Amino acid sequence: MTKTILIATTNKGKQAELFALLDNENYTLITPQDLSLSLKVAETGSTYTENAHIKAAAFCKASGLPSLADDTGLEVDALDKAPGLFSARFSPKPGATDSDRRTLLVSKLKGVSKPWTARFMCAMAFVLPDGSFYQSHGICEGEVIPEERGNGGFGYDPVFLCEGTNHTMAELSMPEKNRISHRAKAVNGILPYIDSALT
Fold first, then answer.
1. pLDDT band at 2 (very low <50, low <70, confident <90, very high)
2. Strand 67-76 to 4-7 pairing
3. Residue 36 contacts by C-beta under 8 Å, 6 or more apart in sequence?
């Protein structure tokens, strides 16, 4: 079995985190850009796990390589777990940026009593060319804050205060983030299955 893994996302932030998380593993990691692979995958699942599997399976089929994908969302209790599955598509604004989505999120929480408890949810899927697959999950608890803090990370990281740290996700260094994040926990959960499948 090839030791090459396709990181099944074109999101540069996710790619950077996954490369850092898997840096000490004995695999060759490549991106869709490395293969000049342009793939638009409709996230039609009703759960993070389904969406992660849909993405990993699509990239695996297109590339013929074992593929690793995740689906991640921010669930805010005061908004009935929104934006959740639609975190990346939260803003109706065409071409909305991460900043647009953060601004919209905070605006929807104005007038709601604090703390704005929330959590990042991550489902990871690893799909092999023979159709077999493995899945894992990770959660990072915290709260949304009204002001942006930090220059790292991406997405909702600047307004997400990580539980027990007094730092937003965007204030953490990559090594710090990759010790406590939802994505790190999901990767740690799936690594034994990857190791087993690729040995």
1. low
2. parallel
3. none
Question: Degrees (nearest 5) of the Cα angle 67, 68, 71?
Answer: 135
Report field, pTM of the whole predicted structure over 0.90: yes
Angle, vertex CA 121, rays to CA 67 and CA 170, nearest 5: 95
| Active-site residue (options: 71, 80, 100, 195) | 71
Sign for the CA dihedral angle at 104, 76, 142, 191 comes to: negative
Per-residue pLDDT reduced to its tens digit, 117-155: 999 999 999 999 999 999 999 999 999 999 999 999 999
Written as six digits, the tokens of 158 are 């600047």
Torsion of CA 58, 59, 62, 67, to 10 degrees: -120
* Catalytic (active site) residue 80: no
Q: Is 76 helix (H, G, I), strand (E, B) or coil?
A: strand
